[in-house]
Design brief:
Number of strands: 0
Oligomer: single chain
Order of helices and strands: HHHHHHHHHHHHHHHH
Strand content: under 5%
Helix content: over 70%
Number of helices: 16
Largest sheet: none
Mean pLDDT: 84
Distance between the termini: 31 Å
Structural class: mainly alpha
Length: 469
Amino acid sequence: MSKVSAEQLGNEPIGKLLIKQAVPASIGILVMSLNVLVDSIFVGNWIGSIAIAAINVVLPVSFFIGALGMAIGIGGSSIISRALGANDHKKALKTFGNQIALTLLVTVAMVLLGLYYTDSLIPAFGGKGDIFEPAKIYYTIVLYGVPFLALCMMGNTVIRAEGKPKFAMNAMIIPSVGNLLMDYIFIYVFDWGMEGAAWATTIGYVLCFVYVLYFFLSQNSELKLNWGHLGFNGDILKEIGALGFVTLSRQAVVSVIYLLMNNILFNLGGEAMVAVYAIIGRMLMFALFPVFGVTQGFLPIAGFNYGAKKFDRVKESISTAIKYAAILATIVFIGLMIFPAEIAGLFLSSSPDISAKELAMNTFVLEHTPMAMRLVFAATPIIALQLIGAAYFQAIGKAVPALLLTLSRQGFFFIPLILILPNYMGELGVWISFPIADALATLVTGYFLRKEVRKTLSVATHLEKGAQK
């Protein structure tokens, strides 16, 4: 990290600094989310709603392997941010080298296992009936590109830890634009169907990797590695694992949720109900992009200032991030409550040439998606506290509370709810589980964050001021 970046993270006003960090992160997440969203719209209009359901089946497997890179990236980047804040450049370099070696080792192994168990994994995640064949086609091709995705996700968090949010933003924009361009060429022009959608996604991953590699080889990065940095260090690996396990656990739970949801909804309404969830899932990725951007922008600020023992700035960054994220979440909430039917209609073909089966499926999706979307996003205005609170503990290296708070919403609350409520309330029980889990997780996170701020940060600030006197 350059001296200018260090001075900004440690001294610039928090509000201004958070905007500088969060806006590029939000734009990058927006473009990636739009990529997923528009990709689904292209697939739905040019291939069919069965194809949307097929991609929804594959996503948890490919995203889980890709999330291994993100987990290693976020775990290591927390160490890098604190090391740079403490002027320990040697540790930052060693950590980055270990991140690269670990990402390659783990993701390649997971891809090999994923290819070996293809015919078992796809049905397990809801790829049944008419969904199986297109899901298998998409899965097999995309899996080859997942190691590139993992390296990109890992590298992106390190770029942000260096205080270079604009480059992190570019790393998300370039492959997204490339993917959409390839979608048009492969699906619409060449008429390759599911193969075209899969190759477009894979090429997008490779483009991302090329850009991230360029960044670290150029003069823009301060982290210049040699072969010695790639050798594993037990202490660093342990800390990366502890902090990265938070992110990995969250994605593992997401994959389990996809598995449960696809199977529960298939039993309730067949392929059409899975397609409803596929649209909801895309909106969960897309609609909250500004909130996730604030969370990403908050991480290096909190981590750096905690490492520099500037605890007043840490407290201010927490309150400012929650305030900004809550305002943005409320705006998103209003839009989703007003336009759910219009949003659902974007994903469905309006061509008069579609089959009777496809037409019936589209009608079902249009009838069921608006209510589902309103229920799923009903607690959106309050989720900022839960996201920022869990991210704070991860930023400062407290792995256990970060893990527990991260898992609280989806693991401790949501999964039990969707296993219980649909037995009594059917489809309604599935959708109402989302806001109930959001509310419960926010209450738990708020309690522990308040305790941390009052007892830990306030005491540390007091002791620091006493020492200065």
